[in-house]
Amino acid sequence: MPNLKPLRLVAPVLAALLSMPFGASAQPARALSATVTIRADRPGAEINPDIFGQFAEHLGHGIYEGIWVGKDSSIPNTDGYRNDVLAALKDLHVPVIRWPGGCFADEYHWRDGVGPAAQRPITVNTNWGGVPETNAFGTNEFLDFAEMIGAKAYVNGNLGTGSPEEMADWLKYMTSDQDTTLTRMRRDNGRDRPWKIPFFAIGNEAWGCGGDMRPEYYADLFRRYATFLKAPKGARPLIIASGGHDADTSWTKVLMSTIHQNMGAISYHYYTLPSPTHDWQAKGPATGFGEDQWASTLVNALKIDDYIKQNIAIMNKYDPQKKIGFFVDEWGTWYDPEPGRNPGFLYQQNTLRDAVVAAATLNIFEKHAARVRMANIAQMVNVLQAMILTDGPKMLLTPTYHVFHMYIPFQGATLLPTDLKTPNYKFEKFSVPAVSVSAARTAGGAIEVSLVNLHPDRSAQVSATIKGAAPRHVSGTILTASAMDAHNTFDDPNALHPVTFDGAKIVNGRLDVALPPKSVVVLSLQ
Predict the structure, then answer these.
(1) Whose CA is closest to 136, among 162, 112, 105, 169?
(2) pLDDT tens digits, 163-211
(3) What's the CATH fold of domain 8-45+416-525?
(4) Beta strands at 96-99 and 152-157: parallel, antiparallel or unpaired
């Protein structure tokens, strides 16, 4: 891990500097004004730590070179796992990891990835780049990896090209404590005791790469496959159904109305594209964009709030006790392929724009914590909105990594409802609320407040009233920069990282914050 030394920032000076339009030397634009009421007297649901979950698919260099380099690699490793990546992920407090996909999951046969590495078949990754898949990283490697970094395992089963027997055998291989051929195979492969598998999904994106199914047909398959997923008493995972995406709520309606047992959660996928029309053929670049794509990206990112509300409304009709979770197990930004790279590897640079998207999205998940109990950003290393990028022996932490690290205090905290009044940030035809907020009380009694200024060149003065608490001290960190596409490179891996924030103060019980443009701030109130 790099040694990041916090810098003391004088907020008014920082705000003045960063609120200036690019290339301008005139007086800074007038600050926006927002108010928020934090209801510490009306605590809400627990913010499940799994909202800050990760996703690791066999895609590009996400697994190979990103996590796994092999025991014989010159890159420092522990039993084949990169030491630098292990350390960074441990420090991130990753709660859960989803694997092996994604689209890859519905063509993955688990027996290809167990046993002596030299004897494992070499297959083709038909979804992502058409490259050979060595199967060197399989079930044992993934589950050991999850244990190494202290994360729970979320395994995605193969519904598309697999069978009920294959899926059932996989679960037995992982969880059985009986003396059977499958458990003997597991022991021969180096694992005596069973693993704990908290989450298991039946298929992925059944509406698309997972089988191009209708929700009614998938619901029948779910019932069939779930019947045969058996594990020792107390060891059966929560079973996740493949749900919808974007604005489509038909999957949630069909699943909730026709499946009456075994379903513990419904998955949902949403990706943010810069394109105003969500054009998958011309999404937009990861860097070098103008304010039009800054604004359009934020507009598209915030749409997930309404989409979640629409799905939750359906779930509440059939499940008012909120027993079934809504898992946003794929989300994040998706840009055009980086020039000169395999377009099927989905490698993209990660900028301050991604950090703002991540923070505003996490605030939305927290707001819906009563039903949204897991989210898995796509993806953990070297793919899409990654936490970490690697290049041979080099590694860097992205702005999105830093946001997730700043949000660690929210894991397991109790949501505190907020009432926000904010002007909009407007650019051309685009308009979004300029400020995003979330608040929670930790088990230790601190009140954590996250604030995001979505405006790229105007600061915001935020005044917060806290009902039911009277904190006396405030401290915090900030992530911001002068350029919209500020990012870290392998030549300058620490160009953008959180620093100490001095722009907040408590006056007569009120929290006042000078929020610089395009910034993410997390405050701790004692």
Answers:
(1) 112
(2) 999 999 999 999 999 999 999 999 999 999 999 999 999 999 999 999 9
(3) Immunoglobulin-like (2.60.40)
(4) parallel
The closest of 157, 76, 148 to 110, measured between CA atoms, is 157
Q: Where are the domains of the chain?
A: 8-45+416-525, 49-412
Query: Is residue 14's pLDDT more than 90?
Result: no
Catalytic residue among 57, 65, 107, 205: 205
Residue 93: what residue type?
Answer: H
According to the model, what pLDDT value does residue 29 have?
78
Contact status, residue 209 vs residue 103, Cβ threshold 8 Å: yes
The whole model's pTM is what? 0.93
Q: How many CB atoms lie within 10 A of CB 318?
A: 15
Tokens of 424: 């909009």
CATH number of 49-412: 3.20.20.80
The alpha carbon dihedral of 478, 98, 126, 135 has a sign of positive
Task: Provide the pLDDT for residue 115.
Answer: 97
Q: Is 366 a catalytic residue?
A: no
Catalytic annotation on 205?
Answer: yes
Q: Which of 65, 107, 330, 366 is catalytic?
A: 330
pLDDT in tens, 105-118: 999 999 999 999 99
